[in-house]
Amino acid sequence: MREIDEKEAERHKAKMAKRKAVQDAEVGGKTVEKGLLIVNTGPGKGKTTAAFGLALRMLGHGKRVGVVQFIKGAWHSGEKDAFAAFGDRVSWHTMGEGFTWETQDLQRDIAAAERAWEKAEVLMADPSISLVVLDELNIALRYDYLDLEKVVSSLQARRPDLHVVVTGRNAKPALVEAADLVTEMGQEKHHFSAGVKAQQGIEF
Amino acid sequence: MREIDEKEAERHKAKMAKRKAVQDAEVGGKTVEKGLLIVNTGPGKGKTTAAFGLALRMLGHGKRVGVVQFIKGAWHSGEKDAFAAFGDRVSWHTMGEGFTWETQDLQRDIAAAERAWEKAEVLMADPSISLVVLDELNIALRYDYLDLEKVVSSLQARRPDLHVVVTGRNAKPALVEAADLVTEMGQEKHHFSAGVKAQQGIEF
Description:
43% helix, Rossmann fold
């Protein structure tokens, strides 16, 4: 174990006491409580997993969550099975038809996105739900499957205590503008470039 | 609903068929299976939540996961309660003493980090565990609570099928170098700047 002499310990203590004062003042200055519009975007991994991590945190507090998957189709995923442990406290809706290069059918993709958005509206209106995850909504907006203005104003008109997380690359500027919290997941390094394939528990 | 004419539908189909060919070739080229060293770093939100989302995904596949929290102390968190739903498939260890500005005691912080690292070694050696989350290990490394070289070589010497996720700001370059997957969570916009306080289910 690293050895600390008395001087270093004292210096550390003084520095941290100062930092605590700054921290306390900052925390004290924050008083607003509100349902947040959260956007996880960018090319890196973690957009959907972080949204599900947040849903898990909410479930840990005894709340209910809703999930709408806009793109992913009805394939088996670990997260869906895991959320089954929380019974009807998770309202899960996989509404996509699969990736656009799988369906190859624009009209069908648009119809699926419309149905998914209708489900999102229902979940957002349900007062028993504290957090709604709109997984890959950004993709549906990027390809103009849905009307951006309609979606953004509906998100802005959400219940004041409702948290919503939107995921997917290439978030539209109007959505970023409307959001309270935006994280851009940047890809620094990816194992796919080293020939590693999609693995159970990591990618699905 | 947006109307699509036949020409647009055809163009879309041709483009997506082409994209599918590229996609299939890419997927086919990836054959390696290995336990990944994953690093979630950067100033943005989502580092820890994405790690827990990954743990959840792994649990959904019936696997066991281990969690060591290097900095957070024994305060109540939603994620910990939520993981209780999975019984002994989650081995959870909150080993921190709280933020450095709370303890104000360098020797105590170092001792806590050492104990946490010992626990991490035990979990990584347990063949029943598929994924280990080392939450905020980057902070312990940044403040030199632990020997960087020792930690990195131990991570590199992990079982070939074990996935490890390390979280925290300011990941050390040697750790990034050793990692398979590195995501930098960038903060584009944060509600704390708008006076919103830490809320249940979002920050804890």
